[in-house]
Backbone:
C-alpha cells in the first residue's frame, strides 16, 4: 500500500528506498565516528531524535494525538519497536564508534541479513532452510575475520574490540525491530508512526543524556557539531526510517535485510576520503565471505512452521 507516504517515497520501488536508507545510514556512521571524541554518544542520540521530533511534530502531531488510544492499546508492541529501533540501535552504534572504525562498524552492520532470519525464527516461528543455515554460518565466519583482524592470536585470546561487540549488539536490536514491524496493528501513517516512536523514545534518551551530561559534561556547539546533529536527525532518522519502513512494507524484512550490505560501500568510500581510514586486507576478505553468506542465505524463501 502506497497511501500515507510522502512523495516521492510512495512512488519509488523497494530497491531504491532500501538503497537510499542504507546510504543515509552509511553517512551516519561517518559523522558519528568523526565526532566520537568531541560529541558524547548519548548526547548525539538524544539531539538526533529531538531534531526528528521538531521536523515531524508539525507534519503528524495532530494525527498521533488523535490516535493516541491506538498507541496505548498496543503499548507493548510500541515499547518494543521504540526501545530496539529508536534507542538501543543508535546508542550502541554511537558508543561503539568510540572504539572501532566506521569501516568496521558498517561491515558488521551488514550482517543484518543473517541475523534477521534467526530473529524471525524466534519471533514468528519462521524456518531457516539448509542453504540459509549454510549462508548464516558462512557470514559468521566473515564477521569473525573482521572482529579478529584475521589474526589467530586475537581469536585465541578473545581480545575483541568492545566497539565491535557493541555494533553487533546494535545489529541484534535492529533485527528485532525489522522483524516485529510486520506485527503492526495500528493505522498510523508512516510519518505518524515515526513520530510516535520518536515521542516514546525521547524520554528514555533524555534520561540517558542527563546521566552522561552529569558524568562527562556537555559539548561545544560548533557549526560542525550542529550540522552533524541536523544530518543524523533529518536524513539518518526521518528520511531513512520512512524509506526503510516502506521498503519492508513492500518486500518484507528478510528480503529487505540484504540491502544493509550496501552500507559499507557508501561508508567505506566516505571513511577513506573524510576520515583517513584505510581498507585492510582483512576487511576485503571478511566482506567477500559475508557476501558469499548473503548469497547462500538468500537463495530460498523462508517457510513458515505450522502453528502449535
Residues:
Amino acid at each position: 500500500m502506497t497511501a500515507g507516504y510522502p512523495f516521492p517515497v510512495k512512488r519509488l520501488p523497494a530497491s531504491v528506498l532500501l538503497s537510499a536508507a542504507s546510504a543515509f545510514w552509511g553517512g551516519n556512521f561517518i559523522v558519528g565516528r568523526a565526532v566520537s571524541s568531541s560529541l558524547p554518544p548519548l548526547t548525539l542520540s538524544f539531539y538526533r531524535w529531538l531534531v526528528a521530533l521538531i521536523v515531524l511534530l508539525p507534519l503528524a502531531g495532530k494525527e498521533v494525538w488523535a490516535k493516541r488510544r491506538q498507541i496505548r492499546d498496543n503499548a507493548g508492541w510500541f515499547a518494543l519497536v521504540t526501545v530496539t529501533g529508536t534507542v538501543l540501535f543508535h546508542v550502541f552504534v554511537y558508543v561503539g564508534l568510540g572504539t572501532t572504525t566506521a569501516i568496521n562498524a558498517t561491515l558488521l552492520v551488514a550482517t543484518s541479513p543473517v541475523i534477521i532470519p534467526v530473529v524471525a525464527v524466534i519471533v514468528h516461528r519462521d524456518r531457516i532452510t539448509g542453504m540459509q543455515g549454510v549462508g548464516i554460518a558462512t557470514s559468521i565466519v566473515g564477521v569473525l575475520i573482521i572482529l579478529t583482524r584475521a589474526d589467530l592470536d586475537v581469536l585465541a585470546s578473545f581480545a575483541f574490540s568492545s566497539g565491535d561487540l557493541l555494533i553487533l549488539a546494535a545489529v541484534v536490536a535492529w533485527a528485532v525491530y525489522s522483524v516485529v514491524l510486520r506485527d503492526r496493528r495500528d493505522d498510523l501513517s508512516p510519518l505518524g508512526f515515526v513520530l510516535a516512536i520518536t515521542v516514546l523514545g525521547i524520554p528514555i534518551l533524555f534520561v540517558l543524556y542527563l546521566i552522561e551530561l552529569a558524568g562527562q559534561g556537555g559539548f561545544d556547539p560548533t557549526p560542525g557539531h550542529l550540522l552533524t546533529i541536523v544530518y543524523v536527525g533529518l536524513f539518518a532518522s526521518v528520511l531513512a526510517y520512512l524509506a526503510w519502513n516502506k521498503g519492508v512494507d513492500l518486500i518484507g524484512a528478510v528480503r529487505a535485510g540484504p540491502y544493509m550490505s550496501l552500507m559499507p560501500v557508501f561508508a567505506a568510500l566516505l571513511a577513506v576520503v573524510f576520515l583517513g581510514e584505510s581498507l585492510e586486507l582483512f576487511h576485503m576478505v571478511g566482506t567477500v565471505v559475508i557476501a558469499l553468506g548473503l548469497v547462500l542465505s538468500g537463495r530460498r524463501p523462508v517457510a513458515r512452521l505450522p502453528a502449535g
Q: What stands out?
A: Residues 44-304 form one domain.
